[in-house]
Description:
Chain A has 196 residues and is mostly helical. Chain A has helices spanning 2-18, 27-36, 43-54, 60-100, 102-106, 108-138, 146-153, 156-171, 177-195.
Amino acid sequence: MKMPMLLQLFWIFFKIGLFTIGGGYAMIPMITDQVVSRGWLTLPQLIDFIAVSESTPGPFAINIATFIGMENAGIVGALSATLGVVLPSFIVILIVANYFYDRFVGNFYVQGALSGIRPAVLGLISSAAVTVLLSALFGGAKLSQGLSGLAAGFSLPGALILAVLVVLNLLKKDLHPIVMIIIAAGLGILLNVLLA
Amino acid sequence: METRQTLKNIGELFWTFFKIGAFTFGGGYAMIPLIHREAVEKHPWITSDDMMNMIAIAESTPGALAVNSATFVGCRVAGFWGALFATIGVVLPSLAIICVISLFYLQFLANKWVAWAFEGVRCAVVLLMVNAVVKLAKGGRLTAFHVVLSIAAFLAAAFTKFDTILIILISGIIGVIYALWCRYRSAEQGGR
Lengths: 196, 192
């Protein structure tokens, strides 16, 4: 039982690492797809961990791989998942740096593929953002459950906090993610104390 | 003599990228100034032009910018072993920190105050993701073709059971076909 789990962690994160183009947030749709569906992590846990990762050093890719590996199979699991997520970029960069270098970026087919992948990633992150929004505001209700399903899970504190953060985000364009997270955490505590 | 120099380089690569991994929050572009200072100004391992090239390559290849940069600089300075140790260096701090956090994570979240705080934090994550989308959208020149592809990917992910990786693969193929078609069309017009 143990060995397949380690291999699975390695393989799933290898696939995720291979298809992550467009920064850390581009991984989130794949994590919900490949990891949450396997029961290695729940959606609220994933969302919480995104915030934890923003508040700790290092790239999101490494943080999330280590975390999921650690939670499911201890230190060896963390090593397997992290190795998996790093290996594709390591191999690709070694090949590019040694054999293509400046011919790679200008290559017609590379540019063509990227011109398709970049906008798609935009759509994928947007879809993941909707999922996160539903989780934060409607207790994880699905759009398919209709208005009554959404209303049943509606969280008033969540809506108030989101409204404040949206205004803040519009007023101060370059608010540091950590500052935003700290403000949101403070509001979460404040509202719950007031409501209790 | 040469081996000793190489060993020294590999050690410095490891240590430099260890520091970069340990001190950059938020990853990605936050670490570009730091990498520039260490790899271009201080050591200097690569030129400013190399650095620009490296960022372009990192943006066009899979994986985290930090890891890609470490592998790239390491490879330029000391070949395979340089790449390996620079990459291990940049990964190690996150790996260690998250392993330690994981040990206390569940007890931490079970605390009432922490649970309340995280109710708010989830809302912040929504905005962080929206900001990431806006930043990516601003970075590229979005034509009608790109917008349609974005919306199609969104709909496929939100309302169908399509695998995310499959969506990325298909979009890459569509991108290549579209580029070929554009080239064919402009060649035809040029021929007239």
